[in-house]
């Protein structure tokens, strides 16, 4: 299939105004540069980080500073169809369906050269005097709440024909969970894992860990319906922390010595101290969520017990490719997370559903009504 697409000069897009303000605008359709493609966005999921950006600005940055009122299109969990190739692209062709990673590192800083492109040292240095080539679509460069976006080919992953648009938007979510498992040491089959917090990343961590052979996988949270969903995705045990003590319950399940790994996805203020008590001596903790305020931590406990702590940023280590593979093999059923669909023109309503969890919303997806 080598299709010719008619590409308009301008497109509908949403941009970040002031705090919690999203504005409908018309923007020029961007041009793909060398090693880039133009993606017609077919579906984009709303992420907790989008809500965070709207409320606080960070982690989005434009020109090294605040992203408010800078015409920035946010939205980063999108998929679509390649409609135009930049110079030198032969890895993809028009008509290919792709999901995207958020971060295209600059390729020239120390971290990018080490492969840690989600920790690019030129993050946010994209415009004005800082043309460093780094892209984090929806964070530092235009993202997915629009009809088109430009992506570097390093950020693309093929979507199989049988996978629906809405499901494919979850590849990057699953990729973030996979990256968390990577940094803890790659998760060997048979190792035990506790996941704290059944949000999308937590639920995808459960599914990815189970697909990779973790045993047992324990999920903790406060809402029974989310915990039930966790069971469907592969959790061997679930713990409702409103009904029982999370640390005690996890330790008991893990032979009273604690689990090998904890994936912290709740952002709760006491989560790190609790994780330290859930994990066994010499164990590893990955932090994939952030508390709203600085927290007190019992450092001595970490030192005495040789506990390792890792923070992750995004979907590094090409983890989206492995996540896409597990989803294509039907070992991760990401469809269970998708609860609502709206059209791009209804974005403010979609955001409201995601923010207020109306009707038990988990992943709210926005689709491009002009796709066909
Ligand atoms: Zn996200
Ligand atoms: Zn870099």
Task: Report what the structure shows.
The chain has 372 residues and is of the alpha/beta class. The protein folds into 2 domains: 10-102 and 137-159 and 334-367, Medium-chain alcohol dehydrogenases, catalytic domain (Quinone Oxidoreductase, Chain A, domain 1, Alpha-Beta Complex), CATH 3.90.180.10; 173-311, 3-Layer(aba) Sandwich (Rossmann fold), CATH 3.40.50.720. Helices cover 25% and strands 25% of the residues. It contains 11 helices and 17 strands. The protein has helices at 48-56, 110-113, 165-168, 171-184, 200-211, 224-232, 246-253, 271-278, 299-304, 319-328, 347-356; strands at residues 10-16, 22-28, 36-45, 77-85, 97-100, 103-104, 135-136, 148-152, 156-158, 193-196, 217-221, 237-240, 259-264, 279-287, 308-311, 338-343, 363-367. Strands 3, 4, 5, 8, 9, 16 and 17 form a 7-stranded mixed sheet that branches. A hairpin with a 5-residue loop joins strand 1 and strand 2 (22-28). Helix 4 crosses helix 10 (319-328) and helix 7 (246-253) packs parallel to helix 8. It is globular, with a radius of gyration of 20 Å. The protein starts with 9 loop residues before the first strand and ends in a 5-residue tail after the last strand. The mean pLDDT is 94. One zinc ion is lined by residues 47, 49, 76-77. One zinc ion is lined by residues 105-106, 109, 111-112, 120-122, 134.
């Amino acid at each position: 299939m080598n299709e010719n697409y008619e590409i308009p000069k301008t497109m509908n897009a949403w941009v970040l105004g002031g705090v919690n303000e999203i504005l409908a605008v018309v923007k020029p359709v961007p041009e793909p540069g060398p090693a880039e493609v133009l993606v017609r966005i077919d579906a984009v999921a709303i992420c907790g980080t989008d809500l965070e950006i709207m409320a606080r600005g960070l982690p989005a940055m434009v020109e090294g500073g605040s992203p408010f009122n800078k015409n920035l299109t946010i939205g980063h969990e999108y998929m679509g169809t390649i409609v135009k190739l930049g110079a030198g692209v032969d890895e993809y062709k028009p008509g290919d369906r792709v999901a995207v990673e958020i971060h295209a590192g600059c390729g020239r800083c120390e971290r990018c050269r080490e492969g840690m492109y989600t920790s690019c040292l030129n993050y946010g240095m994209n415009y004005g005097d800082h043309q460093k080539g780094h892209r984090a679509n929806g964070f530092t460069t235009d993202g997915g709440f629009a009809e088109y976006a430009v992506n570097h080919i390093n950020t693309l992953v093929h979507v199989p024909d049988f996978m629906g648009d809405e499901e494919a938007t979850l590849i990057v979510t699953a990729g973030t969970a996979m990256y968390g498992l990577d940094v803890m040491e790659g998760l060997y089959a048979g190792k035990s894992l506790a996941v704290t917090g059944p949000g999308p990343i937590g639920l995808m961590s459960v599914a990815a860990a189970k697909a990779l052979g973790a045993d047992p996988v324990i999920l903790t949270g406060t809402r029974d319906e989310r915990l039930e969903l966790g069971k469907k995705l592969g959790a061997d045990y679930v713990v409702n922390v409103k009904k029982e003590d999370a640390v005690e319950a996890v330790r008991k399940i893990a032979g009273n010595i604690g689990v090998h790994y904890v994936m912290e996805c709740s952002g709760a203020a006491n989560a790190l101290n609790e994780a330290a008590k859930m994990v066994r001596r010499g164990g590893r903790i990955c932090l994939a969520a952030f508390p709203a305020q600085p927290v007190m931590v019992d450092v001595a406990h970490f030192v005495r017990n040789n506990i390792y702590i890792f923070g992750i940023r995004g979907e590094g280590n090409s983890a989206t490719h492995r996540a896409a593979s597990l989803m294509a093999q039907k070992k991760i059923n990401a469809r269970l997370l998708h609860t609502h669909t709206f059209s791009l023109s209804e974005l403010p309503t979609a955001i409201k559903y995601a923010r207020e969890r109306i009707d038990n919303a988990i992943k709210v997806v926005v689709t491009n009504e002009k796709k066909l």
